[in-house]
Design goal:
By secondary structure, the chain is of the alpha/beta class. The chain has 13 helices and eight strands. β1, α1 and β2 form a beta-alpha-beta unit. The longest helix is centred in the middle third of the chain and has 29 residues.
């Protein structure tokens, strides 16, 4: 594996997968893509030599498979429902870029190991813009030697790779990362709204936050670029946030680890979903926050 040129299949080219696939293509490693939403295929750059939506041929001719789908369950569906798993050569490396329950991650890894297929779970941070620019950060779980062998491919769409532990660790840390991020988001929303009601301009509030200890990615990027600008284009749906927060609070509770702030964030997101906001951009929660906390 380490002596072969990387030949990569990307499965899933949605908001994250498209940028990742384009960067892998520009690095000269992309062999095939698979996407059930065929309208997205035209957005791939320079795709003349790429195998498109032919899993059998794509899997046989690839030694690295990168899944950019909602969860590990979608990977299972792809591999096992049509027996595509039988077309994957031994020593192939599967890179799981989903946001998933690490318990399911570990189960899948064990099943693949029996077939002598390697597996890395990678949590991503940086969003769709980071995928496009090739500036994602990956938190990776799995064997160091396997990660090292695919580093050139990973570096084509990231600017930082962090090995965080054994299989499942990447997805576990990603969930915790999201819990902290979305809790900070709602806390910042609450602070800005509270200050506004006391007569303080939201732009002034954010300026002060960014000059003091309340500074965060939320105050430095999300508010100026997506909320105060009224663009409302943070490019992730409320349903995605609720899914992740439900998953991480369940994981922590199952392991008897308290997470009261995470549970409060989950409850607010649950209220948003029940109010019909599941498919809207999460930046719009700023406009709905007071109604959501009154429920």
């Amino acid at each position: 594996m380490t002596t072969m040129k990387p030949s990569v299949s990307v499965i899933g080219i949605g908001q994250m997968g498209l940028g990742i696939a384009n960067n892998i293509q520009n690095a000269g490693y992309l062999n095939s893509i698979f996407e059930i939403n065929t309208s997205l295929l035209s957005q791939l750059e320079n795709d003349n030599d790429i195998i498109v939506n032919n899993p059998k041929l794509g899997l046989i001719s690839s030694n690295i498979l990168i899944f950019v789908v909602p969860s590990t369950q979608q990977i299972r569906d792809f591999l096992f429902s049509a027996d595509w798993i039988d077309n994957i050569e031994e020593n192939t490396i599967i890179i799981d870029l989903t946001t998933s329950n690490p318990d399911e991650t570990k189960k899948l890894s064990k099943e693949l190991s029996k077939r002598k297929i390697n597996y890395i779970d990678c949590g991503m941070t940086g969003g769709a813009q980071g995928a496009e620019k090739g500036t994602l950060t990956l938190m990776m779980g799995g064997k160091k030697n396997i990660i090292k062998s695919v580093t050139p491919v990973l570096e084509s769409f990231t600017n930082r790779l962090i090995h965080v532990g054994i299989t499942g660790s990447g997805h576990a840390l990603k969930l915790i990362h999201n819990m902290v991020t979305h809790t900070i988001f709602l806390a910042t929303v609450e602070g800005v709204i509270g200050a506004k009601k006391l007569g303080i301009d939201p732009e002034v509030v954010i300026d002060v936050f960014n000059s003091g200890n309340a500074r965060s990615y939320i105050s430095e990027s999300r508010f100026p670029n997506h909320i105060l600008s009224e663009k409302w284009d943070a490019r992730s749906r409320v349903s995605n946030l609720f899914k992740d927060l439900s998953m991480v609070t369940n994981l922590l509770n199952d392991n008897e680890i308290g997470c009261p702030y995470g549970e409060l964030t989950t409850d607010i997101l649950k209220n948003a979903v029940s109010e019909g906001l599941a498919e809207v951009d999460f930046s719009l929660l700023y406009n709905e926050y007071e109604k959501l906390i009154d429920k």
